[in-house]
Specification:
globular; mainly alpha; single chain; 67% helix
């Protein structure tokens, strides 16, 4: 249940530690957060293309099951959101595109809320684990939205 948050906060602290040790790319909390969000998105974006035989992460089929019935073409939707997550990750690590990437990712995270609600209410398991409860999913999504906007809003980042 906490894997996504760990994929965000552990790299964030690691990057910030590197910044404190002199790595200028991670000299601020915002820049470190943007890069950490990129790490998380690489993992979550890759899951959109993962086969069922890969058991260390959710698979494409797991994520397709989360798509609410009102959304057309669930397979295509999962592939498209995976591509958007990977593009967003790339945009976050490049300073000229960081602000736009953060805004676009916040919008994407908002668009994913119905899928999270559906997965919780319909009790859709993820990678064989029980469904994550709604009380956790919505605040988790709010954290991602907040970090995407905050990490990309400052002009204090050197790189």
């Amino acid at each position: 249940m906490f894997e996504g948050l760990l994929l965000l906060f552990v790299p964030w602290l690691a990057f910030r530690t590197a910044g404190a040790l002199g790595v200028t790319r991670f000299a601020s909390w915002r820049s470190s957060a943007a890069h950490a969000l990129a790490v998380m998105l690489i993992f979550t974006g890759a899951a959109h293309f993962a086969p069922d035989s890969l058991t260390v992460m959710p698979s494409h089929d797991d994520l397709t099951a989360m798509v609410p019935p009102f959304v057309p073409a669930p397979d295509l939707t999962i592939y498209a959101t995976g591509v958007l997550e990977l593009l967003g990750a790339a945009g976050l690590v490049l300073r000229p595109t960081r602000r736009l990437a953060g805004r676009c990712l916040a919008l994407l995270f908002v668009c994913l809320i119905p899928g999270n609600i559906y997965a919780a209410v319909a009790d859709i398991p993820l990678n064989g684990d029980p469904a994550t409860p709604l009380w956790f999913r919505i605040p988790e999504q709010a954290i991602y939205i907040t970090v995407a906007l905050w990490a990309t809003s400052g002009g204090d980042d050197p790189v």
